[in-house]
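Task card 7
Instruction: Convert sequence to C-alpha cells.
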Amino acid sequence: MGYENTFGRKPRNNPQKRDKYITVAFHIAPKQHEELYNRIRLSGRRVQDYMTQSGLHQKIVVVGNEALRKRIIERLEEIVPYLHEIEQYEDLDPVVMAELRTIFEITETWE
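Output:
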C-alpha cells in the first residue's frame, strides 16, 4: 500500500533519491511581517530555521468546525492500517509517525 501525503499527491519518482526542497509562502499584513521579522532577528536564526522550528514545534490549537472534525476522522480511518503495523513492527515510515503525532496533538485540543 503506497502512502499519499495529506494533500492527495503521490511522491514523484526520484531515481537519484535526492531531497528536493519545497518553497512555502503565505501572505501576512505589514504589521505582522514587521513583528515576525523582529522575532526572527531576536532569535538569531535564519528565517528558514525559525519558521521550520516554529511550525513544527508549537502547540497546535484547533479552531474548527464539524467539517474539519469530519476530515480528521476520515484521515484517521485511512491511517488505521499503519496503526496495525505499529503493533507488529518497529520500523515505520517517519512521515506517518509525524502525522500520527500531529493528529494526536489536535485531538487533545478538542473540548
